[in-house]
Design brief:
Helix content: 10-25%
Number of strands: 8
Number of helices: 2
CATH architecture: 3-Layer(bab) Sandwich
CATH superfamily: Archease domain
Shape: globular
Structural class: alpha+beta
Number of domains: 1
CATH topology: Archease, Possible Chaperone, Chain: A, domain 1
Length: 147
């Protein structure tokens, strides 16, 4: 589905859950790099109903925030802005993530109606119930999307 340039366990690494009028996301990974890549893939899958995304365009990314939770929100907001303004879809991620910095690159493509299907319209990434934790060697996060 969405390849990630970090090690991946056998599952896709995320699940959605209902949250009143919004959509919640739980995501997990062995590293912050994997967690953030999977979160981007989950958001892309929500936006385009899990359509396949080619890696025909590459763009650099560098973000900073005061905490890991804020960094996740800033990162997902960036992915959402790319889609909202340019119809750019994230395909693969090569990220280096610390609790306050994200750098690397993403590859993807521009949305094409002949290859992709519109999914859920996401208006924003909320702070409500936003969490990022590390426990037993695994990173987990929860985020709520305003739809």
């Amino acid at each position: 589905m969405f390849p990630v340039e970090t090690s991946i366990v056998s599952d896709k690494g995320y699940e959605f859950f209902d949250h009143t009028a919004d959509v919640g996301l739980r995501v997990w990974g062995a590293t912050l790099d994997e967690l953030f890549a999977r979160a981007a893939h989950a958001l892309t899958g929500l936006l385009v109903e899990e359509s396949a995304v080619a890696s025909s365009q590459k763009r650099p990314v560098e973000l900073h925030a005061s905490s890991v939770e804020s960094l996740l929100r800033v990162w997902l907001s960036e992915v959402l802005v790319w889609f909202s303004t340019e119809r750019f879809l994230v395909g693969t991620c090569a990220l280096t993530v610390t609790p306050t910095e994200l750098s690397g690159s993403v590859q993807g493509e521009i949305f094409e109606t002949s290859r992709h299907r519109y999914g859920t319209e996401v208006k924003g990434v909320t702070r409500h119930q936003l969490s990022v934790t590390q426990e037993a060697g695994r990173w987990t996060a929860q985020v709520i999307f305003d739809v």
